[in-house]
Amino acid sequence: MDTTAKITHSSRWFAFTCLLLLILLPFYLIHHWVLPPEAWLDGMPFGFGRDRLDGWPPSLNKQIMGIVITFVPGYFIALVLNNLRKLFGIYAEGVFFSTTIIHLYNKIASASLWFVIAWILAQTAMSIAMSYGTDWVYMTLTFTHTHATALFAALVLRFIAWIMQVALKLEKENQSFV
Predict the structure, then answer these.
(1) Could you read off the pLDDT of 149-167 as tens digits, one per residue?
(2) Largest CA distance in the chain
(3) How far apart are CA 38 and CA 40, in angstroms?
(4) I need a labelling partner for 46 at 20 to 30 A (CA). Which of 69, 75, 89, 145 fits?
């Protein structure tokens, strides 16, 4: 199997995996709010942690607020997964460099940046929502090494997308001289 065949074969697998993750994402985000903590696959998504579980499960209103808040950064993950699925679908067709690919890289980079922002803001909103109606309503605003790593990765994606855009422009200019 030559390199191109390996890339196209692997790309089909990655496109399918992204589709599967995209389908499972809503169930993953909701399961924290509708199942008891013992049945969770892991801790709360996006670093909401298990530190607020003393009154679990929360009231129905808080569960609904939690689901809505959790879905905000989840939306940007869905955008990333969907655009990755499209990107790998194009790679699976044997196309490795095009305007569409660069456009998808830009979308992935933008959604990744917005994910980090939404993640930080959702953590703040979650602290308010879960403490609302108690003796002490509090707000937390955090920026951890995990946020920094995700932000760095998103900025690297943005930079790569920009380089690819410039490369495509140069390729088109070179084609016009030939």
Answers:
(1) 999 999 999 999 999 999 9
(2) 74
(3) 6
(4) 89
- Render the chain in DSSP notation, one character per residue: --HHHHHHHHHHHHHHHHHHHHHHHHHHHHHHHHS-GGG-SSS-GGGT-STTGGGPSPPHHHHHHHHHHHHHHHHHHHHHHHHHHHHHHHHHTT--S-HHHHHHHHHHHHHHHHHHHHHHHHHHHHHHHHHTTSS---------HHHHHHHHHHHHHHHHHHHHHHHHHHHHHHHHH-
* 84: amino acid identity, one letter: L
Classify the phi-psi angles of 132: left when phi > 0, otherwise alpha if psi is within -120 to 50, otherwise beta: beta
Q: Model-level pTM?
A: 0.86
Distance CA 139, CA 124 (A): 6
Q: Which residues contact 20 (CB under 8 A, 6 or more apart)?
A: none
Task: Please write the tens of the pLDDT for every residue from 16-54.
Answer: 999 999 999 999 999 888 888 777 777 666 555 545 556
Domain spans of the chain?
3-177
Closest CA to 116 of 90, 82, 155: 155
